[in-house]
Fold each of these.
Amino acid sequence: MEPSTSSDSHRFLASPVLFHPFHGENIELLEHRRRALRRVSFEKGIVFSERALLEGECFFISIEDVEGGWSGHLRIGLTTVDPDTRPSVRNLDSNSWLFSISPFIVPLQNPISARSLPTEKGSLIGVYYERSTGTLRIHVVLNGFDICPDFGTIPSDQPFFAVVDVFGSTKEVRVVFSGPRMPSRLYTLCSDRLRCLYNEKRCSLSSLPNPLRSQLEKEWNSGDTTDVSSYFSWKGVR
């Protein structure tokens, strides 16, 4: 398999990335492999993207459910191990670069995303890679805030699959969308603000234009068929 390149960027929207059928033994895939639920325990919750990512293509997930009583949280990153080979944990350890999401990772320079912890239900988390001056760098996106963990030297001549460890207090995740790196800054700010207002029960999705409402519902929908957007009102929102 050849490494993915940005020349294929037109495929971002034409080829949505779901979870690969191979997964950890405690995971159940739902909604046509769009949702990953860890049924028992706190571990063995590994899931992969169904194909290698293109350069600059961000694999986004949302945290759909959390469970108290466990230590640790979701981990996300990239691996050069093809899930078609049904890899062992040992192979993953030596060929993967995973970033542990922590409630203490709150970007103070981003007051919108700082209002909710990245480990909370509803958080939007993504991972992508880019090559700069011959060096491959992995980026993690936390509620619209882009960080670049230092993983040291990473081989750049192999395809990369997204890998997510539904670990600890993180109970369920859902694929949101796949696209070039991350949404535009304006879209990110608006989406984050709407999410905050929605979570605070200060807005209703039903009051939004249909195209925007449809997009946000795709990103936020937890699989519950109840139309909760009708419960809230825009009254008093500024």
Note: Confidence is low (pLDDT under 50) at residues 1-14, 108-114, 182-186, 222-238.
Amino acid sequence: IEEVRADDDPLPLAHGRPLPPGRKRFEFHYTALSFYSPEKVRFRYRLEGFDRDWIDAGPRRVAYYTNIPAGSYRFRVIAANEDGVWNADGAGFDFSLRAHFYRTPAFWVACLLGGGVLGLALYRLRMRQVTARFAAVLAERNRIAREIHDTLAQSFVGIGVQLETVVKLQAVSAEVARQHLDRTRILVRSSLAEARRSVWALRSGALERSDLGGALAEVAEQLSGETEVAVRVSGRRRRLPVEVENNLLRIGQEALANAVRHAHAGQVRVELSFGEGLVRLSVRDDGQGFDVERAGHPAAGHFGLAGMRERVQNLGGELSLLSRVGEGAEVVVEVPVA
């Protein structure tokens, strides 16, 4: 073998030389000695790993190959003299052609691993999206349930209080009883409107008519019957974010309803204090009180305390329950505000 070229570049004749990927054309130049009739020398060649059989080249002294795939090869050539005697040993040239990185097994293994990792990441992303969507639906369901409890349920408490007052006063003073009945009709209409607002997460109607202090006073009037309810506001009175006002109003409404309906209080004091970076709501009654450790359990009769805690937690505030059986109760909420 006299010369080997790859894409017109001569290659060293050292055996086993690895070649970079992308080589397209190969030329193998060879010859054989004959002192009598060199023109009658015949050749056969074969590229082991590529050709299945020997190729008869006749007197031609060059072999051409194109588009050889990556792999290890051995080019062999044998010759026959003018008498047709073949040299079975011949000559050989070993070489290997490296594959492009994207055609190597390591690349495909990496692709499979990368595809698996990507698939797992997409699956986890999808699961997070589904989980987030489910959590959003669950949170919205809980919000609506909480709003229904704190609007319709508490409105029913107010309606019940007014109707009980009507029953007790109708034999004493028909005029006063009629006033409470008129108040009941107004409360029914406002309760329906309030329920619609709550479902659509709108500002309470009482908060549209007044600030938080005025809205608490309106709720107190709705729930007052035989129970004396007083509302006091201190500090620099101002409007708060919608979410803060709505939640504080619902908390105050729940605490008032508990005091009137469950604690059977004679007097309830509501105090709203505006401070620097803090608003404080306190609802204190002289009713029968309750066991704080059991508070929040339905069996204890305080169904809305868990909702109050959830509202305060959403606002980043603190809720305190102070009560003893037979000694009244106080609900204190402190919420940070800008």
Note: The chain has two domains: 3-99, 123-336.
Amino acid sequence: MGTGCSSGYALDPGIGNIPSFKIVLVGDAESGKTSVFMRYFKNQFDYSYRPTTTVNIENVVKKLNVPEHTVVSMAMWDLPGREEMDLRTSYYKDVDAAIVVANIADQESVELASTWKQDILNHAVISKKRVVSTPEGSKVVTDYEPADHTQIPVLLLGNKYDLVEERHASQEENADDEEDKPLLIEDNKDADTQSLPKKDEDDFLDTRDEDEDGDRTSPGAEKRDGESENPGKDGDSKREDGGKEDKEEEKEVTVWKYEDQQEVEEVPAEIQFLEEFAEKHGFVGSVAVSAKNADGSVHAAIQALIRHLIERKLMDRTLDRMTEVKVNRAKVMKGKKKKKKDPKAFEPLDKTGIKELDGLFNKCNRYMALIHETRLAYRQSVRLFKSQCMEAEMVPEGPKCSMEDCVSGLKAALEKDSLELLAEDDNGFVTLLVKGQERDEEEKSEDMRDLLQTFQTEVAVASRTILHECPGAIAALQKLDGQIEEDCRGAIERAAQDSPLTTRELRSIQDAVDMSRARIKHSSAMAHECLQDVESSYKKIKAAMIW
């Protein structure tokens, strides 16, 4: 299996139009990567531990419901836990997603998951082929460029959850034993000093037996215990009711509780730490599984990751298909050459010539333009802030630079001048403040002044704009899209009654509507992505201030 990784044909590009994904499985040694691999593909578990020394590659075709049944081709690579880094980087070529496996029962193993995630993002590359002319003829050359970090979701898989369950079960048993010891001593003392009536003694012993079996006391038993405490009063009621009470006790087996009365199940500390760690370090999600137990947890976790990939791919494919239709139609039309448009400028939705639909499209344009401009401003501000940090040599140059690195570098540089960097919450985001001895403008570092000004006037302003404007824009676009879907057919029929439309015109109108709706959904997705980016930047800045 290990020789397959060096071949360019190790990954099947897909069958026809079936989406194809490559997922790598990484993690520390003895975290259970191969067990997860075997559980998902063969539903097996090997109790003997053998370190993985070669790369295991498995191809499989799955059917997912997202929401329609979709066939997906997937290749999963199980990478060795101990491998030369120069060799491992070749495995990250054209990777679509990654799963970092950690031992959830070992906190140190979970903490090391972030290094694996960063290793993948730092070395993942995309291959692009091009044809070049040589004296011997045409030749295909493969170029490699760094992959976009935002396009590679990484799932944190907390394996060996069965060890956590065993640990908690053992702790509960020990706690129960400790609770039972003083009770037994006290009961023995009572038995020596008191003489109970025979009936009460029998009830008392029955209760003791039920308590020792795990406190599984039925409501009927509790009722009998209460009657034994008041023999006079309850005895009279028994004689009056006759055999009626016995029938009620037979029916009364389980007491149901409403949701507000039910006790909330306590989440184990290991799962809480796993979820908090995944959120802090930008994992797409975290799941606690047990490759040892055939409980379906491994299968469900990996299927959820594949579903996330296919949903995103289907959304992008719909937009690309409609764009292709538009381009092909434009090539057929003859006309004057138009000036080149600014690629960064917002392009309004196409008009259909139907007043009702065009009015809805104009309303959508307002919110879509807002999302486009705020997203563009945020990305430009973050790019400017990072470039200034690189120029000031506070962080190393390259695509690895993150917001957390920039703030950490700025904080360290200020500490050299006996100054302290503070991050205070301000209107949903943060404001960076400098604490220390007041200085004249001439004494202040020009780089520091420019960096702080860029953050306050560019990054912070763009982030707050996204937080305040995007949620409302998303809700408005969803409402307008639903209205377009509801009114589309009727509007086209009314327009055809007023002025007959040819088949080509009807098809053109329908294509324009489909294209516009695809762009509306894509704009909403971009707004959600902006909100996630701002939230991630906020958390990274807060994390940088802790260290």
Note: Confidence is low (pLDDT under 50) at residues 1-16, 184-241, 244-262.
Amino acid sequence: MTDPRTPKASWTRDEHGIPQIVADDINGLHWGMGYCHAMDRGMQMLIMRILGQGRAAELLDGSDEMVEVDRFFRRMNWNAGVAAEAENLTTEARAACQSYCDGANARFAESVPWEFRLVGVKPDAWTIGDSLLLSRMTGFLTLAQSQGEVERLFVEMIQAGIGDAHLEALFPGCTAGFDRSILSEVELVERNVPEAVKWLVAAPRLMASNNWCVSGSRTASGAAMLSNDPHLETNRLPNV
């Protein structure tokens, strides 16, 4: 397929249904990626934008649970300053991002996901700021949130009286120099991620991946074993 408004980009699907984009330049490829993302995962993109902006109760469902979800996302404030950040991109980066947005909007102009028509929501045009918002959300989901949970667990264990030897076994190389008396006085407030958000079906799980390794001294072959378990659910955000 070749879009008449963007003659330098075309796409087809291979035998597995995966879009194959052909373009004369890199911005044409970005346009094609935006178009295909909006075609295959448009509802997900728009839902994640609504969540990130803290507007789910306003636009989708006014339930108490959704209000709690909105409170969380507004407290995280990921949407703040995205327009200004977009303006600070280099000329090359801004052109690439805008091409992606143009492709996504070309697809949304052809067809808005039927679920949005059903609830009477007409999505705004996709912007560079929206892409930055989703990038901020992805960064939190894959790193910051899990780091915070680990640090909280460490403090909880100290306050529960877990000894230094057990802490070192669980956090090897990370326990030197901490002041147990200070951490014992830390007041742990409500978790940053409420349960209603953690198990929200529309959003990627607010949980981290894991991996483990086994020394060669414990294997039949004598070689070390490494296993990775990346938690990349199908509802993860479309990534470039």
Note: The chain has one domain: 9-213.
